[in-house]
Amino acid sequence: MSSYPIVRHRRLRRSAGLRSMVRETVLTADDMIYPIFVTYGENIRSEIPSMPGVYHLSMDLLEQEIREVAALGIKAVLLFGVPCHKDAHGSSAYDPNGIVQEAVRAVKGWAPELVVIADTCLCQFTDHGHCGVVRKDEATGIAVVDNDKSLELLVRTAISQAEAGADIIAPSNMMDGFVYAIRAGLDEAGYSDIAIMSYSVKYASAFYGPFRDAAHSAPQFGDRKTYQMDPANGREALREAESDVAEGADMLMVKPALAYLDIVKTLKEQFDLPVVAYNVSAEYSMVKAAAANGWIDERAIVLETLTGMKRAGADLIITYHAKDAAKWLRGDGM
Ligand code: PBG
User: Fold this and answer.
1) 81 C-alpha vs ligand 1 centroid, how far in Å?
2) What is the structure's pLDDT at 334?
3) I need a labelling partner for 277 at 20 to 30 A (CA). Which of 27, 170, 191, 283 fits?
4) In the annotation, is 255 catalytic?
């Protein structure tokens, strides 16, 4: 008499050796991009209250941070600037001596081999906190974000970041045509080698809350729903990604990550470009809060989460956990 069950999945799970032989997804420090917030002033290392372990760093303390990141084997950082001057047109965003431009220059000086990615957006730099230029609609009198006017400023921002030495431009503003405009602008300015990591599929998400506290970039009126995507839409993500591919994007990003892993998987299946998942601020804050209460095992939760993102199709993960994860991975992994 044949014995049941006939299929025994547990045979390959019997030992750590067997499990590691058949493991399909292996997370490494190479997969991770570490976001850093740079601020003016001296000797500033102020922790963002809703993001324990993440800091506003002044330029003089940035070098130490960069050396630590590089020593951990992390290959790339994503720089965000917290400026001291804001105005209606976000002029500090494209100031050749702006905070991001200075930080990019400094980082490339300290660690030339580290890949420096510049976030290209206006919201941290505009007094109204929107990602573009605001004008009053003549017919309705309502304030709207002007797509094409915003593009001009984003192109200037991208060129100034490339001039400063950024390896990758990461436009996060969700204006239509931003990849094409930035690609054309970079090429014309002589930066045809500089890649564009497009925030292709960026949802209008509540998961950016802690970041907006950190970057002082919350919109002062209204919301971002006329340019960021409706969380209910999946097929629209394909249209966003398609246009970015056609316009010359080098990488496609999905943001946030956790609640949108179906989109990560779809993009991976439908397109040939590297897919990036942004493990955003509130995803980080929730883990930190639960860990601080002793409710979860932070190390296990973080490594499982990042592995899940990679399994879903992310080639790269932007994550505030990057330094911790890189340290943990140096040990015994999962
Ligand atoms: C700028 C930008 C945001 C984030 C990255 N770039 C905020 C937003 O769109 O409101 C969010 C990142 C995070 O939450 O970690 N547009």
Assistant:
1) 12
2) 44
3) 191
4) yes
Measured from the Cβ of residue 313, the count of other Cβ atoms closer than 10 Å reads 18
For helices 281-292 and 298-312, give the axis angle rounded to 10 degrees.
150
Q: What is the pLDDT of residues 36-73, one digit of tens each?
A: 999 999 999 999 999 999 999 999 999 999 999 999 99
81: left (phi over 0), alpha (psi -120 to 50) or beta: beta
Assigned token pair, 151: 């593009």
| Substitution site in 78, 117, 121, 254 for ligand 1 pocket (most atoms within 8 Å of beta carbon) | 121
Overall pTM surpassing 0.90 (yes/no)? yes
Class (C level, CATH) for 27-330: alpha beta
What is the phi-psi region of residue 144: left when phi exceeds 0, alpha when psi lies from -120 to 50, beta otherwise? Answer: beta
Asked if residue 117 has its Cβ within 6 Å of ligand 1, the reply is no
Binding site per annotation, positions for 5-aminolevulinate: 212, 224, 281, 320
